[in-house]
Amino acid sequence: xxQASRALAYAFETGALAEQRAFFLRAEDPPFADIVCEQSFxxxxxxxxxxxxxxxxxxxxxxxxxxxxxKEENLANIARxxxxxxxxxxxxxxxxxxxxxxxxxxxxxxxxxxxGTLSKFHSRVFWIEKGDAEPPxxxxxLAGLQPVGDSTWLSRxxxxxxxxxxxxxxxxARHLPDDIAGDVADFGCGWGYLARRxxxxxxxxIDLIDAERLALDAARANVTDPRAAFHWLDLTREAAPATxxxxxxxxxxxxxxxxxxxxxxTLIEAASRALKPGGRLYLVANRGLPYEPLLKAxxxxxxxxxxxxxxxxxxxxxxxxxxx
Length: 324
Prior knowledge:
Blueprint: H1 3-13, E1 22-25, E2 35-38, H2 42-45, E3 51-52, E4 60-66, H3 71-84, E5 85-96, H4 101-112, E6 116-120, E7 123-129, H5 137-141, E8 146-148, E9 153-155, H6 167-174, E10 182-187, H7 193-198, E11 203-210, H8 213-222, E12 228-232, E13 244-249, H9 261-274, E14 275-286, H10 292-298, E15 301-307, E16 311-317
Parallel strand pairs: 1-2, 1-4, 2-3, 4-5, 10-11, 10-13, 11-12, 13-14
Antiparallel strand pairs: 5-7, 6-7, 8-9, 14-16, 15-16
């Protein structure tokens, strides 16, 4: 349980907040039973009973928003939560101090005025009642897709590198070959930048796979080729839907939720299992992450295609089965 969830539970346990029918955005560890949990990040979704990836409508007496590290996503979720409340309903926000909860509390106080606040477990819990005030238009706009890059791309807060083309993806795109063909996958597709670059004429099918459903929603808008299919999967525990001639991969090994090398290691192993014999993996990652022993153990060969002292692009080739 995160510190912010502990603080939230404390607010209900002590009677600072009253239990009633509620929704919970970015849910984890609900503080009481009668809560509909929304969670678009599949590893967390799979841990929750009776969860949904998206709450579209309703008139609720109580709403809860668990804040993330992403300021714009928090503002968007507060605006969404406000729209889901019935008149006079209460919206509760909880976040860690290290994630900017105090700053967000000041913004919410300025926009609505606070009904109550609590500080516990290095976190802030604050709540507001729905009256005549409306969230700022900027907050409401963040709940939908936004133009990014050269404005031919769409993305939204809550996605890795949501408002720009990630430097690692850009480096990998520059070093992809022009002979990619057959069945292809993008492991950790994000909002679809690499996938759109990799759909070459000889590609017959491409699977875009991500654990964040918000990313897939954006990817669908960005990759409209009929050869594309979209899959909400946690590849660290769920199998890929097919086997592939080529896999490209730039998951957020180095930021946000995926801050440990262990996730990258698990995805490399998943890619080795999902490649056809002789299939190719094109991987970009922070150059300091210790993936070379793992590549050596899981692939027939690998080589560095680019290294700019920040990111390294690697090509790895799956072993061929011995002929009988």
